[in-house]
């Protein structure tokens, strides 16, 4: 099932990039990020409430909270820089460079989460990085 969710994530990430480029036209990336973040916030809490998971908020442990706060800060910075790039760059060039994050995730997962790094993973990551660099040039 995770593969379907991953494909849907990729689809909506692509749609997001196109809509974000159109939405940032004539305004600052900071304002665009704030508006988008507000919408995501409302949507996320609506889903939690609708799914009946609000009671789970009380069970968030200290360690979970620290990592989620740090993840939120990293996501916020990622979105801010992404919108700054979209302000002046072509989305067809910005998005592939942004996707170098895939390679970084693979490396960080190997280093920090002890996930396996196979030859297939290294080759795939190398091809992703090469493709992103090629498209950016």
- Point out poorly predicted stretches: none
* Biggest sheet record: none
Helix content: over 70%
Mean pLDDT: 92
What does this entry look like structurally?
- The chain is mostly helical and 137 residues long.
- It is 80% helix and 0% strand.
- The chain contains 6 helices and no strands.
- Helix 4 (91-98) runs antiparallel to helix 6 and helix 5 (100-112) packs antiparallel against helix 6.
- It is globular and about 50 Å long.
- The N and C termini lie far apart (36 Å).
- The model has no long low-confidence stretch (mean pLDDT 92).
Quick gist of this model?
The chain has six helices and no strands. It is mainly alpha-helical. It starts with a helix and ends with a helix.
Describe the SSE topology.
Layout: H1 2-23, H2 29-50, H3 62-88, H4 91-98, H5 100-112, H6 119-136
Helix pairs in contact: 2-3, 4-6, 5-6
Features:
mainly alpha, globular, 6 helices
């Amino acid at each position: 099932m995770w593969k379907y969710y991953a494909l849907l994530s990729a689809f909506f990430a692509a749609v997001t990039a196109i809509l974000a480029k159109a939405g940032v036209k004539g305004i600052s990336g900071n304002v665009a990020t704030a508006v988008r973040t507000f919408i995501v916030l409302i949507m996320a809490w609506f889903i939690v409430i609708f799914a009946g998971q609000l009671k789970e908020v009380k069970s968030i442990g200290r360690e979970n909270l620290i990592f989620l706060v740090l993840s939120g800060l990293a996501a916020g910075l990622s979105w801010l820089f992404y919108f700054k790039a979209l302000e002046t760059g072509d989305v067809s060039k910005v998005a592939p460079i942004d996707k170098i994050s895939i390679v970084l995730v693979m490396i960080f997962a190997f280093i920090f989460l002890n996930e396996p790094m196979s030859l297939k993973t290294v080759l795939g990551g190398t091809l992703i990085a090469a493709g992103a660099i090629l498209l950016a040039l």
